[in-house]
């Protein structure tokens, strides 16, 4: 058995090669771990994600349209409401109709959530069952 202790000239030569064996070992271990665990992760729970749908609605004459502008002013079918109490009185009349009309809320983009929240709260207090938000679809540009 022999062993190399140094060069003949007395100077050690510098190795300029990178030893890639440890790198390959680590990469193979990571690859095996990934291959073993990926099927387990993908099959934990069977769920069905919701599908996005945009439905074009047909406005019926009996539907109630409420508009809230960016200043918080409330309009009932183009008639300005003084406050949510007046809106409540109008909604109370609509809530007892059979079938009950839908309420469509159109809020300006710059409207504070507080104003929209007051309208939704008022519709709930009046007993309205169906409330929806009307938006514009994004530009497909």
UniProtKB/TrEMBL annotation:
How does this chain sit within the bilayer?
Answer: Single-pass membrane protein; Single-pass type II membrane protein
Q: Chief location of this protein? A: membrane
Q: Which residues form the signal peptide?
A: none
Q: Which Gene3D superfamilies match?
A: 3.30.420.270
Q: Any idea which GO molecular function terms this record carries? A: transmembrane transporter activity
* Segments passing through the bilayer: 20-42
GO BP terms in the entry? protein transport
Q: Which GO terms describe its cellular component?
A: plasma membrane
> In which compartments does the protein localize?
Cell membrane
Sorted alphabetically, the keyword list is:
Cell membrane, Membrane, Protein transport, Transmembrane, Transmembrane helix, Transport
Note the InterPro entries from the entry. ExbD
Q: Which family does it belong to?
A: Belongs to the ExbD/TolR family.
Question: Could you tell me what this protein is called?
Answer: Outer membrane transport energization protein ExbD
């Amino acid at each position: 058995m022999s062993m190399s202790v140094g060069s003949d000239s007395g100077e050690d030569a510098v190795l300029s090669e990178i030893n890639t064996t440890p790198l390959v070992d680590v990469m193979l271990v990571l690859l095996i771990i990934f291959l073993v665990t990926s099927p387990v992760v993908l099959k934990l729970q069977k769920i069905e994600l919701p599908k996005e749908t945009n439905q074009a609605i047909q406005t019926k004459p009996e539907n109630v349209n409420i508009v809230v502008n960016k200043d918080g002013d409330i309009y009932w079918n183009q008639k300005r409401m003084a406050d949510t109490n007046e809106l409540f009185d109008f909604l109370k009349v609509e809530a007892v109709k059979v079938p009950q009309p839908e309420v469509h809320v159109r809020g300006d983009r710059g409207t504070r959530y507080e104003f929209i929240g007051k309208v939704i709260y008022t519709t709930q207090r009046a007993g309205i069952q169906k409330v929806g938000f009307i938006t514009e679809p994004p530009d497909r540009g």
